[in-house]
Design brief:
This protein is mainly α. The chain is built from 11 helices and no strands. The longest helix is centred in the N-terminal third of the chain and has 30 residues.
Length: 260
């Protein structure tokens, strides 16, 4: 599996699109720091970019990568190679290349802007951690979807819908349920539904670190009130880890049963 990780990573890290991904984050981060003198506002601004763009790019790029390398994957599987090693190796190399581009693109401008000496350094590390978790989580979901569907258009469409649902429709669904059940205690419902969305989890985790309840929205405010910062942050990070492990498990399970 290490060989597959090394091959996929070395192939993707030199990719034209990976370089564009890095340059985009570098330019956006530099622009945010240039136009905002307040480091807190800069961190919140880059957070909004991270929680929307990283899931979108990860799920699209991962789906495209799987379908483009499907013939090569089938050729390798004709050899005495474990399916789980091949699929996990490709997925890990892909997620690592996306994470590295994001980490380098955001870190370089912020380090040049003095984040290392800032009181918000730990908050910045939390953004990097959340972005990395989103890269791995959404890439696993994309791979799981692509393995499940042979039709490229169908698989690509389902992947896009998953992103659209989690990033756009999900919050509206939460608000609708809270309005419908406004006569009942809804704090637990809001917390559970937040845990079921990796994008919401990332936003809440960062906001728990920043301790800016006014910007967290209803679900984040309830999360902070119920768990408290010292308990809520570990729980949200553990949930993000599960959002990586569970899709990866089903990805391997589908690959082992799939007729290549």
């Amino acid at each position: 599996m290490r060989k597959f990780i090394k091959y996929s990573f070395s192939d993707l890290v030199r990719s034209y699109w990976t370089i564009i991904y890095f340059l985009f984050f570098a330019i956006i981060s530099s622009a945010i720091l240039y136009f905002s003198a307040d480091m807190t506002k800069s961190i919140v601004s880059i957070m909004n970019v991270v929680i929307v763009l990283i899931p979108l790019v990860s799920i699209i790029f991962s789906t495209i990568y799987y379908y483009n390398s499907r013939e090569f994957t089938e050729l390798l599987l004709a050899q005495p190679i474990k399916r789980s090693s091949l699929i996990l190796g490709q997925y890990t190399g892909l997620a690592l290349s996306l994470s590295l581009s994001f980490l380098a693109g955001v870190s370089i401008p912020f380090i040049a802007g003095g984040i290392l000496a800032s009181e918000h350094f730990l908050d910045f590390l939390l953004i990097l951690l959340a972005g990395t978790c989103l890269s791995f989580s959404m890439s696993a979901i994309a791979y799981m979807t692509a393995l499940r569907h042979e039709n490229k258009i169908l698989g690509f469409g389902i992947s896009l819908f998953i992103w659209f649902f989690l990033a756009v429709l999900y919050d509206g669904l939460i608000m609708l349920l809270l309005v419908l059940f406004r006569e009942y205690p809804t704090n637990s419902l809001a917390i559970v539904m937040t845990l079921l969305n990796p994008i919401d989890l990332s936003r809440v985790s960062i906001m728990l670190g920043l301790d800016i309840s006014a910007l967290m929205g209803y679900t984040g405010a309830v999360f902070l009130k119920f768990f408290g910062t010292m308990r809520g942050l570990p729980i949200s990070l553990l949930s993000m880890l599960l959002w990586i492990l569970v899709p990866a498990y089903f990805m391997v399970r589908i690959a082992n049963k799939k007729d290549f």
